[in-house]
Amino acid sequence: MSLSPRYPDTVHYRGLNRPTHIEATAHDLYVEGTIPPEIAGTFYRAVHDPAYVPRFADDNILSRDGMISMIAFRDGRVDTGIRYVRTERFKAERAAGKALFGSYRNPFTDDPSVAGIDRTVANTTPYFHAGRLFMAKEDGLPYQIDPDTLETIGRWDAAGQIRAEALTAHPKFDPETGELFLFGYEADGLASRKVAYYVFAPDGTITHEVWFDAPYAALQHDFAITATHVLFLIYPTIADLEGMKAGGPHWIHHQDEPSWIGVMPRHGTADELVWIEGPRGVHSFHVMNAFNEGTRIHLDQCLFNTNFFPFVMEPSGIDLPVEGALTRWTIDLSQPGAGISSRTIGPFCEMPVIAAADVGRPYARGWYLTVDPTKLTMLANGPGEVVFNCLQRVSFAAGEPDGRIDTLSEGPGLGFNEPVHVPSADPAHGGWLLMMVDRVIAAGHIAQELWILEADAIASGAVARVFMPFTTCEQVHGHWVPHARHAPAAPR
Ligand SMILES: [Fe+2]
User: Fold this and answer.
1) Could you say which of 69, 127, 155, 213 has the lowest number of CB atoms within 10 Å?
2) Which residues line the annotated binding site for Fe cation?
3) Which keywords does the record carry (predicted)?
4) Residues 236-258, buried b or exposed e (16+ Cβ, 10 A)?
């Protein structure tokens, strides 16, 4: 491992991963088609863009500095903006004019001058609760952002009430109670098994806190709630403290270790947490949904045979070829010893999306990204050289997959990013999807368009396209905030 003099010539810095450093605002964007009037709110997006050449050439995309992007809709007009999140790390590196923090989640590789400074890059998910906009990454506490100017307000610990050192970038919101559910892993230090779980009332007050030990120090990227329970998801990508001290990666994936679901009443205690063993070696980054059916709980997730990221290896250094599918795991709370039953309910799946009103409930449809191999686009975008070019809609009847899968695939030359769902005021209408589309316009050059799709008619294509005035790096996750939850300031 040697210090890097320039941006490395790896997938992590090529194509759409090429740094742009753009911070900009633009108003009244060019629109083709008609924007449905009920799309009134703001699509916040997390983008990752490294502000400085990484210290080490083998660093990966997960270390890149977080940017918060907004695409705001008001009376058919569209504005956009993007800003770096001024994390403590960003500010220290901006002052020095170079990277001071080392490899992804390995503080032993940092310049000694930054010891004790918050390492998170806040690059994964924007979310909004109790009037506050946050940018989150699972290795630290979230940063609060001004929802109109995108200026960083600062690291948020609920006025000192959050003792966990980190909180997930996959918050869950109950559609009926308005509660926010969060957890943090490695909650009291590097490679720790400690997990902290918090419930927040609609006004942002912490109403419940539980600490417990996970079976091992796993990469717990996502979790799930049902109407009654919370599910903690443990897959065997495990922190390696000794390896980190030697300058190695934070994570090693163990194909021979079991997965686990920890299930607890939403407002339960650690004594009520039940661990149910699952298959060995599997991994999932993202949950589509979970819900109760009598004493049973169904968990729908994008499940893989191994860790999806090519740079997360087995102890031997092997990286298995990835196979995956939208998969339903079912447990029975009346028979926890019966384990987990598993079945495939859809093709290769990432970036799952559902309507906010369906979280934790039986649901009729969801959407996710996959790859149409007949229209491949080779473009560095995230951890791989192949982009998602296919959006799918899977539907359920009475909670069961009905076999209908709708598809919108494009290419070669186009890439899809995780959409966000915007509900319709008409209960008979399935709402809308807003999806950023990357379009290769020449070798090494990409333009971006925001597509607006009818959520229940994705195969018909976009009803409107918003042409973005500048190109950003890859989007990670997004979040829709309607005007009813935040009345935005008028453009200046
Ligand atoms: Fe994620």
Assistant:
1) 213
2) 170, 221, 286, 477
3) Dioxygenase, Iron, Metal-binding, Oxidoreductase
4) bbbbbeebbeeebbbbbbbbebb
CA 272/CA 158 separation, integer angstroms: 26
**How far apart, in whole angstroms, are the C-alpha atoms of residue 419 and residue 285?**
17
Residue 173 near residue 356, CB atoms below 8 Å:
yes
Question: What band does 358 get if pLDDT is binned at 50, 70 and 90?
Answer: very high
Pick the closest to residue 63 from 22, 2, 109 (CA basis): 109
Q: Kindly report the CA angle at 279 between 278 and 284, in degrees rounded to 5? A: 85
Q: What type of residue is 426?
A: D
Distance separating alpha carbons of residues 317 and 335, to the nearest angstrom: 38
CA 30 to ligand 1 center in whole angstroms: 30
**pLDDT tens-place string over residues 98-124:** 999 999 999 999 999 999 999 999 999
Q: Closest Cα to residue 245, out of 110, 45, 428?
A: 110
- CA–centroid distance, 51 to ligand 1, in Å, is 22
Q: Please give the annotated binding residues, written as ranges.
A: 170, 221, 286, 477
Q: Is the pTM of this model over 0.85?
A: yes
